[in-house]
Amino acid sequence: MATLEAPNTSTTNGDPTSPVPLDTIPISPPKDGDSDNSHDATDSKGKSSDEPVTVFHDKDNFNVKHPLMNEWTLWFTKPPSGKDHNWNDLLKEVVTFDSVEEFWGIYNNITPVSELALKSDYHLFKKGVRPEWEDPQNKHGGKWAYQFKDKKAAPIDELWLHLVLGAIGETLESGEEDGELMGVVVNVRKGFYRLGLWTKTVGKKIGGITGDVAGGKDRSEEKAKEILMSLGRKFKEVMKLAGGEQVEFSGHTESARAGSTRANAKFVV
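Given the sequence above, the corresponding structure tokens read:
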């Protein structure tokens, strides 16, 4: 079961039991003449901390955070304890973050995917989007997915980290205007690991709605499909799959009708 402890990315007087809350660290250092004196102290080396110090310069005494373009929420699905279980009872919202430093504080304090119990899932979605087919922002969408059937040979922790970094770093889509990526998922099962990338649309008109539900740019179906295929290629690249391996895209509606997370593939890359 996932555990989340207070991020130990910043400490007081070198004492790891006294973490400084990340939400007290400003996005940028105070401007000249700012009355805030919280940065007037000196660090362990005697250097004045009113100068911008990032976590990459000093992991214990940084005073600047690197904001992400979007806020992200980590969710966890715990394994069912019996046959009768409610999905909503198993799905737990863990934490929301919006900076690089907060992400690493969280990532370094949760259970690695490789150590999760069977039937566990991690979901990382944009804030305000639940990792469910029925969510209003997901119901017209689908997902790219790939199963690693040889679990021992799959570097799942590395692959999941790279997928997450691609999502929060906004490098999986070609541009901010694409607006397709909703979140990423990892499933831990007895016979495989499955990684997935959820999208806003399925690249076509649904009930008269254009294939551009994501951004409202009135895209053509051809353009919408092009964006989805580009995401699929990026997803495959992050998975480090050989040229002969394929990732599949299926719509949530079809998956719901099939009663499975894997409906017939709509697209393949």
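The chain has one domain: 71-268. Try to locate this feature in the token string yourself.
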